[in-house]
Give the backbone structure.
Amino acid sequence: MHNTLSSETEKQGLIFDIQKFSVHDGPGIRNLVFMKGCPLRCPWCSNPESQNYYPEVGFNERRCIGCDQCEICLEVCSTNAIKKTETGNIAIDKSLCTNCGECAEACPAKAIILFGKYISSEEIIRIAEEDSGFFSRSGGGVTVSGGEPAWQADFVYELLKKCRMRGMDTAIETCGYASWENLEKISKFSNLIFFDIKHINSSEHKAVIGVGNELILENICHLSSSYPETPIIVRTPVIPGFNDTIEAIKSIKNFLKNLNSLREYELLPYHRFGEAKYEYLKRQYLLKDINPPTTEHMAILGNIIHA
């Protein structure tokens, strides 16, 4: 399994997507750069391909044209990780797969996907400059998301610095669970910071996400005091059964009163848009029986934060 940087890629960043024409992740029209690697394991994560810090192969069985028509992936796999099933389709043995991506590159139906590629900051800048006209007219720019950008702090720092040198507006989206050194580094050249706070109660946070929230809350306070002129937008994904109560949202709102640089507090309703990708990665989607919060309930919670 490839999970470390080689000598050829040590000066590059590991991303899994660049989304153009984003309008929800900062002012204006933006390029949204998704970094790979995240320390949290939120069961509602809509980008499960972002979590591991290495490229990984996914398989969309519905796109596969079957071994009767094609066996190219079987032929190119050097570790015999791809097997022909009794139904004439293929299966990928994750224990043998090295995530080299040769099968994804060869697959004519694009049923096999390689989530993650190494890329230089200059290449990302080149892609962003294709939309510089949209940026200048709309006040847009580049937003670095994830995963968690602070997990690749050196790369993100250089990328944002180059963006600013070229006059591009910059923003980051962070879960806040990172060393202060790394979080501060990626904040130095950020015009705007999106910061997730999912729960105030640390034990409930740990029970569902895997870690406590002390570091997250400490970091947002450090950001607000160290970069008072950099606006922070706090976001809370509203997850039924976890933090969708009036008490949970009130607790977060009360904590945020101490942040002088807070521009806005947003509630994001839980959705299931990323569920199919769990299947591609052969992972279990734990919230398949959870329904999104109703519009009426979101309105009640929204009234709390705007009261």
